Amino acid sequence: MKRTALIGHLTPAHAGQTVTLQGWVNRRRDLGGLIFLELRDRSGVVQVQVEPDSAAFAEADRLRAEYVAEIEGVYQQRPESQRKGGAADFEVIAVRVKVLNTAKTPPFELEKGGDVAEDIRLKYRYLDLRRADMQRNLFLRSKAVTAVTEFLDAEGFIQVETPMLTKSTPEGARDFLVPSRLNPGEFYALPQSPQLFKQLLMIAGFDRYYQLARCFRDEDLRADRQPDFTQLDMELSFVEQDDVLELQERLMAHVFRRALGVELTLPFPRLSYQEAMDRYGSDKPDLRFGSAFEDVTDLFQGGDFKAFADAQTVKVIAAPELTRKQIDELERVAKQNGARGLAWLKRDGDAFTGGISKFVTAQTAELLARTGVPEGGTLLFAAGEWKKAVSALGAVRLALRDLFDLAAGGPQFHVSWVVDFPQLEFDEDSQTWTYMHHPFTAPHPDDLKLFGTPQQGEIRAQAYDLVLNGFEVGGGSIRIHDPEVQTQMFAAIGFTEEQAREKFGFFMDALAHGTPPHGGIAWGFDRLIMVMSGAQSIREVIAFPKNNRGADLMALAPSPVDTAQLGDLGLKLDDAAPEA
Ligand code: ASP
């Protein structure tokens, strides 16, 4: 017998009809001689009642949790006293039950899935994926993919696949390497992104490209990172920054509309990197709420309060009334993020008490005016070197958000751009200049003259990040298309000509063969779906993710390999390494 409907597609119009459903037993209860089952398929759950005198009873009595069953019965409204409105008011009275397959007792209760230890969920991922949350997340993801394809196809983009076995690509993370059996002692790198290939596609004249690209980065893992992940990767020719941003906004709006039924407001606000850092202490500020910083460096400069007097930057954030314990906790956050401490004041009428109040009497009126801190509220200060001070206070701002649920009052989704990133960053550890986005990002034309000068840190990049609720969900740039500028850029980050040739020789050659002006962006697709779905980790929106130690607990990867396999590859392990 074929199934007549998916459970979630049953409507009141089916009432009185005989239906055949197929799915899994969600739950079984026996009550007063009756068997109550919940039957589940990918679309929903329905209650099935099997009466003791029914021909279906004996077979139904075999059913246990997660058995696969086919149930034929009459779809009908439940007795009036049991109705609460909605689909749950309907049930199926079974006339025939067929066990399609038995199942072992599940190692965890599926209904409790979200609360079960994640390692168990990942070990039995195929069961975990049966849960409504995971089904919802993966369907959302699929809808978003459809929306992307729909939109970009209509905009004239071509999908091209780029290689997985390739040469190191420049995104600044560690590569995953794959040994080559045919070329002993040599290795492929898995792509950190399709960056160079998509630029080559522009040189090849495809004009508009996209790909849902798997990327690989061997980094320490966090809730929003995986060693292999998916980017929505795009590149366009004959464009300037505004063209890219405008198209991206329409794409993002389309994805939200089609996948979630949410209308985003266009255009997205744009903040410069400087502004984002200055006001929110982050290059991916969560703008669902305000709590911007005020700059009060001028109020203290050269004054008596030594801790602030010589600081490059003094920033303040106004917080609600805080207990001492909360202040201590926020100070810990500030210190973890590079601050030496977190100075504070509590407003008491037209004065301040507590914390550093005895040092700031001269500044009281001005602090009240600039911050607008309410009665009883707290001011929190970070002082020191600019980047350290703003970053630390940025972390405090997010801790305040979590403490007081500040984002709840704002829009559910807030998308913005951060633009005008610096082209170069000075790395204190290695005492060298490095790129901030990647070395193919074009500098602002007005700033070109600063290459190679002591002011090269001030060069602005034509780079942009897409920020959603405090997460960087995309990043891209206009690219260098002039080989001369590319050479200058390599020189600025200390690559000798030989080094540049060795790494990117093929690309430098291509660049000299008629490169159109071009630019693009890549979305962190897993991260975007995570935020759209409200999940706390990208593992919740990836069907088969690794855990936070990079392990696939189900397939047991990575795993040792035998000596013969290594031999084929011309490899030998250190004595210290475990063997299979
Ligand atoms: N390839 C870049 C990245 O992965 C994105 C881009 O510049 O398009 O971050």
TrEMBL record:
<dbReference type="Pfam" id="PF01336">
    <property type="entry name" value="tRNA_anti-codon"/>
</dbReference>
<feature type="binding site">
    <location>
        <position position="437"/>
    </location>
    <ligand>
        <name>L-aspartate</name>
    </ligand>
</feature>
<feature type="binding site">
    <location>
        <position position="226"/>
    </location>
    <ligand>
        <name>ATP</name>
    </ligand>
</feature>
<comment type="similarity">
    <text>Belongs to the class-II aminoacyl-tRNA synthetase family. Type 1 subfamily.</text>
</comment>
<dbReference type="InterPro" id="IPR004364">
    <property type="entry name" value="Aa-tRNA-synt_II"/>
</dbReference>
<feature type="binding site">
    <location>
        <position position="472"/>
    </location>
    <ligand>
        <name>ATP</name>
    </ligand>
</feature>
<feature type="binding site">
    <location>
        <begin position="217"/>
        <end position="219"/>
    </location>
    <ligand>
        <name>ATP</name>
    </ligand>
</feature>
<dbReference type="Pfam" id="PF02938">
    <property type="entry name" value="GAD"/>
</dbReference>
<feature type="domain" description="Aminoacyl-transfer RNA synthetases class-II family profile">
    <location>
        <begin position="140"/>
        <end position="558"/>
    </location>
</feature>
<comment type="subunit">
    <text>Homodimer.</text>
</comment>
<dbReference type="Pfam" id="PF00152">
    <property type="entry name" value="tRNA-synt_2"/>
</dbReference>
<dbReference type="InterPro" id="IPR012340">
    <property type="entry name" value="NA-bd_OB-fold"/>
</dbReference>
<keyword id="KW-0648">Protein biosynthesis</keyword>
<dbReference type="InterPro" id="IPR045864">
    <property type="entry name" value="aa-tRNA-synth_II/BPL/LPL"/>
</dbReference>
<dbReference type="InterPro" id="IPR006195">
    <property type="entry name" value="aa-tRNA-synth_II"/>
</dbReference>
<dbReference type="InterPro" id="IPR002312">
    <property type="entry name" value="Asp/Asn-tRNA-synth_IIb"/>
</dbReference>
<dbReference type="GO" id="GO:0006422">
    <property type="term" value="P:aspartyl-tRNA aminoacylation"/>
</dbReference>
<feature type="binding site">
    <location>
        <position position="479"/>
    </location>
    <ligand>
        <name>L-aspartate</name>
    </ligand>
</feature>
<keyword id="KW-0547">Nucleotide-binding</keyword>
<feature type="binding site">
    <location>
        <position position="217"/>
    </location>
    <ligand>
        <name>L-aspartate</name>
    </ligand>
</feature>
<dbReference type="GO" id="GO:0004815">
    <property type="term" value="F:aspartate-tRNA ligase activity"/>
</dbReference>
<keyword id="KW-0067">ATP-binding</keyword>
<protein>
    <recommendedName>
        <fullName>Aspartate--tRNA ligase</fullName>
        <ecNumber>6.1.1.12</ecNumber>
    </recommendedName>
</protein>
<dbReference type="InterPro" id="IPR004115">
    <property type="entry name" value="GAD-like_sf"/>
</dbReference>
<dbReference type="GO" id="GO:0005524">
    <property type="term" value="F:ATP binding"/>
</dbReference>
<keyword id="KW-0436">Ligase</keyword>
<dbReference type="InterPro" id="IPR004524">
    <property type="entry name" value="Asp-tRNA-ligase_1"/>
</dbReference>
<dbReference type="InterPro" id="IPR047090">
    <property type="entry name" value="AspRS_core"/>
</dbReference>
<comment type="function">
    <text>Catalyzes the attachment of L-aspartate to tRNA(Asp) in a two-step reaction: L-aspartate is first activated by ATP to form Asp-AMP and then transferred to the acceptor end of tRNA(Asp).</text>
</comment>
<dbReference type="GO" id="GO:0003676">
    <property type="term" value="F:nucleic acid binding"/>
</dbReference>
<dbReference type="InterPro" id="IPR004365">
    <property type="entry name" value="NA-bd_OB_tRNA"/>
</dbReference>
<feature type="binding site">
    <location>
        <position position="171"/>
    </location>
    <ligand>
        <name>L-aspartate</name>
    </ligand>
</feature>
<dbReference type="InterPro" id="IPR047089">
    <property type="entry name" value="Asp-tRNA-ligase_1_N"/>
</dbReference>
<dbReference type="InterPro" id="IPR029351">
    <property type="entry name" value="GAD_dom"/>
</dbReference>
<keyword id="KW-0963">Cytoplasm</keyword>
<dbReference type="GO" id="GO:0005737">
    <property type="term" value="C:cytoplasm"/>
</dbReference>
<feature type="region of interest" description="Aspartate">
    <location>
        <begin position="195"/>
        <end position="198"/>
    </location>
</feature>
<feature type="binding site">
    <location>
        <begin position="524"/>
        <end position="527"/>
    </location>
    <ligand>
        <name>ATP</name>
    </ligand>
</feature>
<keyword id="KW-0030">Aminoacyl-tRNA synthetase</keyword>
